[in-house]
Amino acid sequence: MMTRYLGLIASSCDLSIFSPGRIEVCAFFSSLWRVMRDARGPHWAGVAVLARASIEPSARHALTHTYKFMPILARLLSDTTSNDKKMKLLSVMQDISYGIKISWQECYLTRLMKQLTEWITQPMTEPQHRTIGHKSLTVLVNVCYGNLPAIYALMRTVDTKNFVGHLISLKDGGYGGVEVCRLLLCLSNGTRGSANTRQPDVTHSYLSCTMKTFNKAIVERDATQLLHAYTFINDLCADSDVKSFVLTYPDFSTSLQNSMKSIDELCKVVPDDMGEPETSCLRYVLKFVTVLVNLDLYSLRSHHCQLVCLCMKSSRTCLPDALELFAAIVSQYRDEGALPRELISVISDGLPGLLVPPALEPGKAGLQWLQVVGALCESGETQERVLQEVTPDSFEDTLYGVLQYTSQNGPVGTETGVQCVIVACRTGLALAPLSRHWEAAFARMLAHHQVRKLLCACLASNNGTRRRQILQIIKHHYFPSDQMNQIFGESLHNMSDVSVESASPRVDADSESLWATERLTPCQELAINTLISRLNESLQAGKITDIATSSAMELYGYKLTCLEQRLHSHAVTLQSATEHTASLQHALALMQATNTSQQDVLYTTQMQNEKYKKTIEELHKQLEDAEKTLQSFRAKLAGERLDKENQKETLHKEFRSQVANIESEMKAREREMEERYKQLELDNRSVQKKLEQQTNKNSELASVLIKFEERVKHKDKKLEEAATAEGALRREIDQRDNMIKQLEKTVVERENRLYQLKFGVYRR
């Protein structure tokens, strides 16, 4: 069941479940460490989970520096394991051993060195053996690079002279050139000190090998070689003693020019068809070129236009690294105050696309986008474009998205959040004087609780560079003084765990100095050489021949047995102490995650309490103002009430006088109405009498009217009869008229007939 659940976790598509800043993730990795330490545990299911988790950068950092999985994975290395499992295990080990810090002789180092060197020196007869040897070399370089205890364990395990000769043969054969250079650099630091590596010839030979490996790895799509090339040249450039020799290397421009064609072919791959190896190759290429650009060599400025085009081509697949390279190119012209014309013409075409905020994954590319905006704000010609293309709201959303994403990623996320806050404050100080909207956005950024928290953490940290950056921001003339007072007045005694990385360089330096002091000093070496020469002289003179050889050998054998027993007991004790330290470190990581979450809750609660306290104070002030206003209203109301009572009394008097007048008028009108009523009664009686008389007359007139109606009816009857007779006469007249017309027609016809007869007679 545990194997099945681990398989489900290993096949998860969401890498955010491995973010180490949460309590449940810390508990999961600590439990996985305990399970894999058990001999009966599901080791290979755990290896699959570690392979998936190492893809996420913050989780890989935690697996390397916090949870200490290297000893457990080193136990699984053996010759009896199948080649496929060897390659899977070595792939995980080369991921989580990258950048590992080893400060003492851990008990697994000797066995690990022996196994790795056996696979490196074995004959490369089959492709799988070559892959295993290459991955073993990668793991060995990661473990030894910067770790003197691991280098001493390697030197005790192998014959250094023969092993170096084998490494040189691998380098000349084109196999892992950069990794061999890194390992040779480690061995030279462990044997003769670092003075040898500071010679210009040696440095230039390393750089030549690095550039050749870089060009070859681009053609072969080898992401591991590109990663080691980037790491090696970045480390050389970061060393202040070696950087002066790096700057004198003359072939950077030529090598980069030879690589541009291969880089363009790598960018021509369709993004939908580009797999994980091609994407990783392009990402490491951009990182490598960014390191070269940051050297600020004048000979590389002729390639800036091509590199800007490269940024625009690769922004679809590797947006964070493309933005970082673009910001590095623009920052090279910071002191000049203006960009070259040819570079501006190239930038103007693709600048709107690069200035689009990464809305889908602001946490992964937000820092680089903010760096691009900040770099463009340092030039007056591109500053106007930033004001046109970037809105304050999108800038704030990207910043807060990055801070929310990085708050759960432990020390790596804290460092990213600090860089974002510094870049955002610089950009806000550059754009606030030019626009009121940016001024309001800058004030909102400074009022945000995470921004203020990180500013306070930087001021309280041991990192001098960060403190100088924050102080430069605060002393700016446009930085609001009230915000400065609040930042300095914040409580910092709970911020000690925010920047955990500040203590690691000191611990590493102490460990390196400790191991350096264990080596013999020149005076001790001289004294030992003198003692050896004196013993040789005594031996040649025969002065020590009386010592029994068997007794001396027996004594030395007894001492060696005692030393081996003590060494074994110390190794067992060291192993148990290492495991106990790892478990304590897991508990510390869990406590730190819990403490961080509680600090966030506490800080948020404190900010809310301060906000509520300010609100309560404002409400108290409003209440006092309201009470004063109420008192004034009450006094005013009392005065108005007295005035209204006086007015009421006067109105009552007026109303009484008016009512008395109205009553007297009503009485006079009542008497008048009574008289009129009596007169109307008399008139009514006279009218009643007249009405009766008129009624009698009407009855008489009605009888007469009846008689007249009868007469009219009789006359109407006679008129109807006369009308009937008249109609009959009219019909008779019409008939006679018709008869007359017929007769006239007959007469005319007969006259015509007669005329015709007369006319015929005459003709005859």
From TrEMBL:
Q: Which UniProt keywords apply?
A: Coiled coil
Q: Which residues form a coiled coil?
A: 609-711
Q: Give the matching InterPro entries.
A: CIP2A
Q: What is this protein called?
A: Jg11043 protein
Q: What organism does the UniProt record list as the source?
A: Pararge aegeria aegeria
